[in-house]
Design brief:
The complex is a heterodimer.
Chain A: H1 8-41, H2 45-60, H3 63-84, E1 91-93, H4 95-120, H5 124-132, H6 137-167, H7 179-190, H8 193-222
Chain B: H1 8-13, E1 19-21, E2 28-32, E3 35-36, E4 40-42, E5 48-49, H2 51-63, E6 67-71, H3 77-82, E7 88-94, H4 97-100, E8 104-105, E9 110-119, E10 135-139, H5 143-152, E11 157-161, H6 164-173, E12 178-182, H7 183-190, E13 198-215, H8 221-234, H9 237-245
Parallel strand pairs in B: 2-6, 2-7, 10-11, 10-12
Antiparallel strand pairs in B: 3-4, 4-5, 7-13, 8-13, 9-12, 9-13
Amino acid sequence: MIDLQGFGPQLWAGTLITLQLACASLALGIVLGLGGAAAKLSGIGPLRWLANGYTTLVRGVPELLTVLIIYFGATAALMALAGLFGYDAYIELSPFAAGVTALGLTFGAYATEVFRGALRAIPHGQREAGMVLGMGRRRIFLCITLPQVWRLALPGLGNLFLVLLKDTALVSVIGLEDLMRKATVAVGYTKEPFLFYLCAAFIYLTLTIVAMVGIHLLEQRANRGLARS
Amino acid sequence: MKPTRNALAALLLSASAFSLPASAGDTLRIATEGAWAPFNFIDQSGTPQGFDVDIAYALCAQMQTRCEVQTQAWDGLIPALKVKKFDAIIASMSITEERLRQVDFSEPYYSGGLRFVAAKGKAFDTRRAGLQGKVIGAQRATVAGQYLEDQLADVVEMKLYDTNEAVYLDLQAGRLDGALSDELPTYEWLKSEAAKAFEYKGEAFAKDDKIGIAIRKGDPLRERLNKALQAIVADGTYAKINAKYFPFSIY
């Protein structure tokens, strides 16, 4: 491994944290996005309002603020609650869980719109055809709708993932030692800003390229059987 | 950033399943930033070090308390203190009106002042009479710039810049006879290659930038820290730590 004045292993550890954060947030965000899109398109009023409230709120608040509110706000709220029962010590929220929650919520809010667009792009007739064939709602969703939604949503989701990858740098304020934080710390010690920031940029770029190749392969697979136009 | 006390939404979202009680016990949890050498920084093995960290451990030894020094990005320090993640911040934090509304501070454990810098080996009289007609640079809207405007405007030819780096650059370029700036950050610059030909002139003065230890409002820890601070100054521990980083007293 490259030594980088002894900070190589530190940067590597930071890269791993960044990757873990991005992947965990992606998983949470996709679930939230699908749920949000389903809720927005459902016939039940309160569900629609809830989903609209969620996307408006989360997309309207800067990501940094979301991270801070979830971590410190939740800690303060939990402690106020515990205080009512006479328990007056610090309650630790895992910074990683808080970071994933915040980034996942953000990703989910944007993904909701991506999925909503994809869901609406599927002709209604296909569902009716399924029903005519005697398929249940579940099967129609899993066998007809979802594979196509996946194909239509992939480019949008890929885009969001690349944004997410870089948003992970925000979580250092709650004490997570991600790549960006490790780079800042190394600069503080060595006084070599160019070396370490360029190095961090290079690592982010590499991660982005790997992600882009992955997304491209997934798209190819999702589009198999479709004529290129 | 003020964390809301009734952030019920946040509570619901990041379900309490994530929480676990911290095993605080009698350990004092001290926070520092880790990106402000030589006061606090993190070495290759990830261990926090520097003047602030040494002072923290010295205070803990004096108070006979177990201590844990943790690092966190600057913006998260005061919020984390307020929600009791940490008990004290020793991170070269200036005592300001604004911060005093949020937290309490111990007595200052060091203070920054102003000091002149000029070319090595050349005579440079920092007394008022000696500065007559000299071209002196400083950063605009800083304590140093203000001092020049208020105290020396009638004696020196004043040049004000937007950043301290610009002051240093013009000093190197020979457009300035001397510069006035914050003593301690300047010390870092003086150690660099670019500053080889320069040195401090005269002693530091106008030591107004008081640096304290932040604690929660009303925390009795303040008294213990103040006592311990007095004790380590009195018994020479402070001077030893000081000498490790600066060849002059910064107390």
